[in-house]
Amino acid sequence: MLARHLDPLALHARGFAGLRVVGDVHGDARGFEAAAAGAEAQKLFLLQLGDLTDGGPDSPAVLRRIFGLIDAGAGLFLLGNHEHKLRRALTGTRFRGPTEGLDRTLEQLSAAPDGEALRNRMIDEVARAPAWLRRGPAIFVHAAFHPAMLHTAPPPDAGTRKAEPPVTRALYGQVAAGLQGDGYPERLLHWVETIPQGIITYCGHDTRSTDGRPLLMRGRAGGEALFMDTGAGKGGHLSWIDLGL
After folding, report:
1. Is 205 helix (H, G, I), strand (E, B) or coil?
2. What is the CATH number of the domain that holds 142?
3. pLDDT, tens digit, for every residue of 63-110?
4. At what angle do helices 115-128 and 81-90 cross, to 10 degrees?
5. How many angstroms separate the CA atoms of 151 and 162, rounded?
6. pTM value?
7. 129 vs 6, which has greater pLDDT?
8. Domain residues for 174?
9. How deeply is 94 buried, as exposed, middle or buried, from its count of CB atoms within 10 A (0-12, 13-18, 19+)?
10. Sequence-ordered list of residues with C-beta below 8 angstroms from that of 92, at least 6 positions apart, any chain
């Protein structure tokens, strides 16, 4: 299914020359501004792969920028596990255990002069954010590929409810039973082996790169996964890739 958001004919008709795919931001407003400004200058539609907030110095600025792109019809973000958790926190859920930067984001929003407006807008935007998108041979998703993504659209309300398969794969990837010593689940990559030949999955979630560049992996079935998270907001930097229409 060709998502209407990324229909090359529609994008071309609206004046876009291509697509800029941006990895996990995690509050790195400076990096995201560079990505967004460059996309605007080159007339590229910006698709962010989820995890906009939690960790970096200025999550409110990141939200202002993505909302501006959405309002201009020049960008959108996919549903990530951090968006899903942030919406739950903004609507009253309390969490136990590691929050992975969520507390910092909530503090930043409380201190921002437009914090209340940003909170309300985020609740609405997460509610309608797609959990994955397909464009020809490309699957765009936050965490990991699932075969259902090849022939089904994500639930339109995935951001508002408890994640169920294949949305769980889209948000959290594939994890082992139990927890590691640090209290987090072990993330597995068996799903890469199931990507069919001719299909490439653009994803974030896991910082797999060892050289600061997006990491390309090929599975046994012939498909590929490009890991776009290079540690923005977590001591690394923000990465993006530009695609033609």
Report:
1. coil
2. 3.60.21.10
3. 999 999 999 999 999 999 999 999 999 998 887 666 778 999 999 999
4. 130
5. 22
6. 0.94
7. 129
8. 4-244
9. exposed
10. none
